[in-house]
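Design a sequence for this backbone.
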């Protein structure tokens, strides 16, 4: 097994990369957050490091690494959907490898191979390795940070370079996603529980305060803390999303979740110090997402998903060892070595949540209908064809300006956003309100959006229409101000209606969206 291990790992990474890369060059349309990633990357290419201080644009400081990666690949390969997604395809291909090393450190090689296989073929892992968002990078950094932490806290001889690498990973994690703080809380709690005497010694050393000061300075200097407070202030209001995540983990991923928690429970009995870190991280994540964080979408479970697969892998390994425990011949010893792999391949081949044949398109709605996906290319190709945009006299209204800018460029001027102004309630856990200022012309301007004007009621819409004899309004959300929607339905020309992306494998993933126009031949 040891001699074959490098070949096995190379094969796992190769298969992982193939499954994630296949069909990506077809340039399937972005979805809402991917449009945001692309727009942020364009800001970086246009303004450089001044994006952090430019008062005229909004830069998402809690996704810094994601946007710089996308910008880098835009610079290298051009601005296409596939080039925005490619860095995460590459990163996602190494997630099984990271899972392998963490699993082997905690358990054994057999469990590690099984965990890597489950991760390689997992639909959930594959689909989020193909999106132009940083969730998969966040996941990789969590796995690496956990492994480094366990190594640092167990071994007696530690070098400055080991601490430096660990600190660098922590900084990258913070700059990648603010939920990385949950991992930091987990590491601190775990360290206190198992290393309280060492914990006191650490905080007597000057370097630890230097590291803490550096982390705070980086967060403050990039505007990260301000964005964290603005974007996640809702997180401190009690909510109840337990039902949602319960449905995902138990109804959709019942077998994986059951075997995962069985394996982690057994692991607590045999490898308590190591497995308790995983269990604590899963527990804190689920508590925070279920009861303290308003938005609820399944992708927020990505950081804990590899750990559930690791638990599942240990269950499979343990079951196979129990089955083979009474067989002691050399032939059966060989079978004992490969039995966990055979059981894993059986689960993968027969499992609904695993992929054995590459797909051109993996749907983020495969499990739950959560994210609007239609063929936005059709919408904007029609706008470009009929709109005479080069004259700059065609008004465009969209519900998401990052989408509009992706197709028309960040310098297109007659741009309006159809949004809520200050309504009660939430949509997917987010408030139905839009900040704005009033300019000298009496128009509502959304700050830091390159002068995007706000339409929040029918009066706003009619006032804007009076300035532009030609225009389009794209409506893809029925919860938006109804008087504008009703006016468009009755008074404007319906250009095209779409409600489903043809390659989406979830038949319930219906997203009604209509493009209306006026003054267009």
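Sequence:
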């Amino acid at each position: 097994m040891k001699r074959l291990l490098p070949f096995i790992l190379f094969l796992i990474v190769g298969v992982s990369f193939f499954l994630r890369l296949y069909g990506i060059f077809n340039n399937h349309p972005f979805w809402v957050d991917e449009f945001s990633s692309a727009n942020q990357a364009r800001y970086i290419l246009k303004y450089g490091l001044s994006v952090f201080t430019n008062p005229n644009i909004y830069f998402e400081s809690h996704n810094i690494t994601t946007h710089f990666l996308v910008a880098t690949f835009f610079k290298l390969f051009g601005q296409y959907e596939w080039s925005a997604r490619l860095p995460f395809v590459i990163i996602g291909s190494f997630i099984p490898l990271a899972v392998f090393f963490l699993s082997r450190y905690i358990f054994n090689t057999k469990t590690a191979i099984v965990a890597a296989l489950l991760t390689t073929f997992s639909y959930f892992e594959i689909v989020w390795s193909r999106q132009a968002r940083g969730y998969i990078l966040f996941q990789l950094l969590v796995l690496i940070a956990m492994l480094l932490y366990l190594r640092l806290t167990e071994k007696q001889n530690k070098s400055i370079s080991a601490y430096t690498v660990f600190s660098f990973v922590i900084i990258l994690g913070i700059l990648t996603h603010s939920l990385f703080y949950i991992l930091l809380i987990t590491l601190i709690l775990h360290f206190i529980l198992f290393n309280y005497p060492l914990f006191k010694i650490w905080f007597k050393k000057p370097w630890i305060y230097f590291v803490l000061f550096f982390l705070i300075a980086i967060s403050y200097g990039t505007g990260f803390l301000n964005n964290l407070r603005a974007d996640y202030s809702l997180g401190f209001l009690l909510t109840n999303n337990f039902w949602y995540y319960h449905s995902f983990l138990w109804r959709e991923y019942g077998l994986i979740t059951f075997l995962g928690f069985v394996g982690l429970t057994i692991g607590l009995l045999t490898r308590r110090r190591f497995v308790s870190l995983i269990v604590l991280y899963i527990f804190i994540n689920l508590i925070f997402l279920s009861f303290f964080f308003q938005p609820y979408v399944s992708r927020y479970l990505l950081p804990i998903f590899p750990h559930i697969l690791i638990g599942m892998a240990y269950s499979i390994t343990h079951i196979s060892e129990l089955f083979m425990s009474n067989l002691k011949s050399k032939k059966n010893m060989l079978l004992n070595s490969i039995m966990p792999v055979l059981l894993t391949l059986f689960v993968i081949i027969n499992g609904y949540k695993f992929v054995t044949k590459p797909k051109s398109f993996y749907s983020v709605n495969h499990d739950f209908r959560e994210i609007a996906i239609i063929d936005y290319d059709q919408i904007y190709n029609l706008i470009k064809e009929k709109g005479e945009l080069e004259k700059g006299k065609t008004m465009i209204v969209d519900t998401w300006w990052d989408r509009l800018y992706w197709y028309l460029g960040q310098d297109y001027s007659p741009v309006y956003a159809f949004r809520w102004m200050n309504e009660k309630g939430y949509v997917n856990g987010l408030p139905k309100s839009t900040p704005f200022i009033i300019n000298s012309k009496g128009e509502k301007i959304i700050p830091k959006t390159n002068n995007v004007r706000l339409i929040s009621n029918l009066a706003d819409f009619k006032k804007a229409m009076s300035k532009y004899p030609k225009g389009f309004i794209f409506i893809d959300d029925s919860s938006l101000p109804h008087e504008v929607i009703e006016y468009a339905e009755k008074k404007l020309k319906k250009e095209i209606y779409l409600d489903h992306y043809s390659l989406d494998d979830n038949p319930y993933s219906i997203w009604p969206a209509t493009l209306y126009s006026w003054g267009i031949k």
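The longest strand covers residues 422-427.
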